[in-house]
Automatic annotation (TrEMBL):
Pfam families: DUF2383. InterPro entries: CHP02284, DUF2383, Ferritin-like, Ferritin-like_SF, UCP029477. This is Uncharacterized protein (TIGR02284 family). Residues 10-119 form the DUF2383 domain. It comes from the Bacteria. Signal peptide: none annotated. SUPFAM superfamilies: Ferritin-like. It comes from Mariniflexile fucanivorans.
Length: 151
């Protein structure tokens, strides 16, 4: 089956979100190992698992659109994880530094999802998936802001 132009544009959007979720999952796994507070570690582990689920969902829709999904994150994501390593190593409060980076990352994810959501409005299944993932990320952002307040 041939991929249509509309499907190609949708696939490109989904590929970007898939790559961002690979980056987020890897980032959560990385900082989970550096976290000092066990409750924070558990929350980070849950977020890594959630982003893994997001990648599975996006992968499935991309395949349903007769395309081959990307299989890993971006160079920018790798660079950001390297920066987090440096920042948490130099920080006197590792958990606070982790929470700050989580807030920054989740804000970027919400912005990306909002931007991409506007472009997929004509595909209801895709729209619903992207919207629901965005809501979950917004919830995580609100949670991490509260965690930062008590850290």
């Amino acid at each position: 089956m041939e991929i249509t132009k509309a499907n190609k544009e949708t696939v490109d959007i989904l590929q970007e979100l898939l790559q961002k979720n690979y980056d987020a999952e890897a980032g959560y796994k990385q900082i989970m190992q550096k976290a000092e507070n066990n409750l924070l570690k558990n929350w980070l582990q849950a977020k890594a698992k959630q982003r893994g689920q997001f990648t599975n969902e996006l992968d499935g829709i991309i395949r349903n659109l007769n395309a081959t999904p990307v299989t890993d994150g971006s160079l920018l994501g790798s660079a950001h994880r390297a920066w987090i390593d440096v920042k948490t190593t130099l920080s006197t409060n590792t958990d606070e530094a982790i929470l700050e980076e989580c807030i920054r990352g989740e804000k970027a994810s919400v912005d990306e999802y909002e931007k991409q959501l506007e472009k997929v409005s004509s595909f209801s299944d895709v729209n619903n998936l992207v919207y629901n993932q965005m809501v979950s990320i917004k919830t995580a952002l609100n949670t991490v802001k509260r965690l930062e307040d008590i850290a």
